[in-house]
Specification:
With about 500 residues, this protein is of the alpha+beta class. The protein contains 16 helices and 23 strands.
Length: about 500
């Protein structure tokens, strides 16, 4: 009987369950969106129970549509939106509050207080991260300080914390009746509380944030059996967990130092494999864990996190109403020959890498009476490419590695105009794989590798196939002129908030 591997892919806007075969091909997929909750400006929340319900629903739908049952799956992996923070009651499994999403900036003042004196790099040497609202630890502190009753629950040991992987794993492995309270090293490395060297929680940081240690999950390897699933996946081993960007690195088979990928989703995230040693960044990047196989040393990565990429296209649709569907943006951008000297910097909640300016706000500049919707659409696409170039420059400066090509994935890579402009701005080829769902594929690879479905990295590399390639065509002088204008636009967004 043929066996398959499943992957729960819990993202910022939706949840998918995908089934893959031994060649990495997609056997079945089901997907459901969840509500984006915006209580006030800069705040972004999700209903953790809606996410859990959607997860169970897509599992059932994907198996049913392919005529499969849980018995057809050798293993399941989970990948997730990373810094998004959930607190829940260990006895009832009820979420104590809506999940606070990674994009949320409500902790800005708290972060400033924590940085007062020591500066934003207070814990960078330990965690690889700057003090920023992006990360989970301050979100936990905010909830304990601001939501009535939670501090008491936490102090009495009744409250659990986790990123979305922990929330799902706990419920899917039994909940209050023996569910495992764990997170993997990649997700833990995004909390601002994990020591990169020891792969354990740093007691001093946890205490400084006012978080009882009893709330924290056990940190486990990314690849290795965690437990058996309950519910619609009853009896199937849960054998892999990776944060979404690390999962994409795994799915792109970037297993060697110097290999990199860029994922174009709601945000944009470039990861560079740096091997067995964490590389400290002095150019605005994050030092993070790439993955860890059970019983082996971790593999580290440098990451450039861009807050707004695909979300900018959604804003053109929902905020400005200049397109009806996100897929229309390419045609509109192609209606003009160039950007008409229009630049759009999407600092909607500050700027992430390499600037880390929470005071920045979005800017649309260069408008004249000649400008039209096509120029705005083109500027929106180009913004993602420009931001990626900034991150690549920072990676080169930190690591000394010059990329020969960039592997790409995510929802935006179907946009041919963007991919060509990305190659032009980078000055290196951009390569898209046949299987574009590399985040889910990475989670499946992790789980299948743990259970012997694949024999090793060579098997996974053999599955990777090129699906598209874009070569740079823009003359160097033109590229430099565009980058200079972009840099000027970025600096004009500072000191607004």
């Amino acid at each position: 009987m043929d066996r398959y591997v499943g992957a729960i892919d819990q993202g910022t806007t939706s949840t998918r369950f995908m089934v893959f075969d031994h060649s990495g091909g997609v056997v079945s997929v089901a997907q459901r969106p969840h509500e984006q909750v915006f209580p006030r400006a800069g705040w972004v929340e999700h209903d953790a129970h809606e996410i859990l319900d959607n997860t169970l629903a897509v599992v059932v739908e994907a198996l049913s549509s392919a005529g499969l049952t849980a018995a057809d799956l050798l293993a399941v992996g989970i990948t997730n939106q990373r810094e998004t923070t959930v607190l829940w009651d260990r006895h009832t499994g009820e979420a104590a509050h809506n999940a606070i999403v990674w994009q949320d900036t409500r902790t800005s003042e708290m972060v400033e207080r924590l940085a007062d004196g020591p500066g934003p790099d207070r814990w960078r040497a330990t965690t690889g991260l700057p003090l920023a609202p992006y990360f989970s630890g301050p979100k936990v502190s905010w909830l304990l300080e601001n939501v009535e009753g939670l501090a008491g629950q936490a102090a009495s040991g009744d409250l659990l914390f986790g990123t979305v992987d922990s929330w799902l794993v706990w419920h899917l492995t039994g909940g209050s009746e023996g569910g495992r309270h764990v997170t993997d090293v990649t997700n833990a490395s995004r909390t601002l509380m994990m020591d990169l060297a020891s792969l354990g929680w740093d007691a001093d940081i946890v205490e400084a944030l006012g978080i009882p240690a009893s709330m924290l999950p056990e940190i486990v390897p990314s690849v290795g059996r965690i437990g058996e699933m309950k519910g619609p996946l009853a009896g199937v081993p849960l054998s892999g967990v990776l944060g979404d960007q690390q999962a994409a690195l795994f799915g792109q088979t970037a297993f060697s130092p110097g290999e990199a990928k860029n994922t174009y989703g709601t945000g944009c995230f470039m990861l560079l494999n740096t091997g067995a040693d964490p590389v400290p960044s002095t150019h605005g990047l994050l030092t993070t864990v790439g993955y860890q196989l059970a019983g082996e040393a971790p593999v580290y990565a440098l990451e450039g996190s861009i807050a707004v990429a695909g979300a900018l296209v959604q804003w053109l649709r929902d905020g400005l109403g200049i397109i009806g569907e996100s897929s229309e943006v390419e045609e509109m951008a192609r209606s003009v020959d160039d950007n008409g000297d229009v630049y759009l910097v999407p600092a909607f909640s500050g700027l992430f890498a390499p600037h880390w300016r929470s005071d920045a706000r979005g800017l649309l500049m260069g408008l004249t009476a000649f400008s039209n919707r096509g120029h705005v659409a083109r500027a929106a696409l180009e913004a993602t490419a420009f931001q990626t170039r900034e991150v690549l420059d920072a990676m080169r400066a930190d690591s000394g590695v010059d990329l020969s090509s960039l592997r790409v994935d995510g929802g935006m890579v179907v946009n041919e105009l963007l991919m060509q402009f990305q190659a032009d701005v980078l000055g290196v080829p951009v390569v898209r794989p046949v299987v574009e769902e590399t985040t889910a594929l990475g989670a499946a690879y992790a789980a299948g590798l743990a259970e012997g479905y694949w024999g090793g990295f060579d098997d996974l590399r053999a599955n990777w196939q090129e699906g598209g390639r874009w070569e740079p065509t823009l003359p160097e002088g033109e590229r430099d002129a565009l980058l200079a204008r972009w840099s000027d636009a970025v600096t004009r967004t500072f000191d607004w908030a």
